[in-house]
Amino acid sequence: MLGSYDLLTAFVLYAFVSSITPGPNNTMLLASGVNFGAWRTLPHALGVSIGFMVMVIAVGLGLGEVFKLWPVLYTVLRYVGAAYLLYLAWKIATSGPMSEDDGSTRKPLSFLGAAAFQWVNPKAWVMAVGAIATYVPAQGYLLNVLLIGLIFMLVNLPSVGVWVMCGSALRNVLRNPRWLVLFNVLMAALLVISLYPLLFVESGFS
């Protein structure tokens, strides 16, 4: 499976680096950790990792080829993703202050919402296509696709969890409403900036 130990090691390193570096998922998880704490953000983090695993497997089973045949479908997906990212950025920027009831009057992104978001996340597409194109050997292809998806999830979950814990650790620092508003606006701005590769960089499906 995966051809060799060296290939497996290289893939795990790829999965770790691509998972822990900044992107839309980690920006939102950091903001959610600040606004809701680690425990309430857990479904969001699980949705990211499990949803991404499903996406990697789907790409490996041929979804990428569908987009190559009909690139207009991916173009539509890109602009739907852009609109959704702008909506999420607005939600973050306009988040109210932390409440003493542990934020129960507000809700973090759900498991299903986070899983669905992977399909409109530009960084997730780059990661998924890169993993399948680079690290899946032809021999035992189907089994290796499933293994790649599973390993990616196992590496991704603790990686994104670091961002959640960093956000949770900042909760006490950001109890001041003014600092929290500034933080949320900054996170929203970073999400908007992340639209650049989504809209202005070649997708590879055209």
Automatic annotation (TrEMBL):
Q: Output one GO MF annotation.
A: amino acid transmembrane transporter activity
Major place of localization? membrane
- Domain of life of the source: Bacteria
Recorded hits in InterPro entries, A to Z, give: LeuE-type
Q: Where in the cell does this protein reside?
A: Cell membrane
What keywords is this UniProt entry annotated with?
Answer: Cell membrane, Membrane, Transmembrane, Transmembrane helix
Q: TM spans, by residue?
A: 12-33, 45-63, 69-90, 141-167, 179-199
Does the entry feature the keyword tRNA processing, yes or no?
no
Q: Which GO terms describe its biological process?
A: cysteine export across plasma membrane
Q: Which GO terms describe its cellular component?
A: plasma membrane
Please give, as recorded in its UniProt entry, the membrane topology of this protein.
Answer: Multi-pass membrane protein
Q: Pfam families per the record?
A: LysE (PF01810)
State the protein's name: Lysine transporter LysE
Recorded source organism is Pseudomonas cremoricolorata
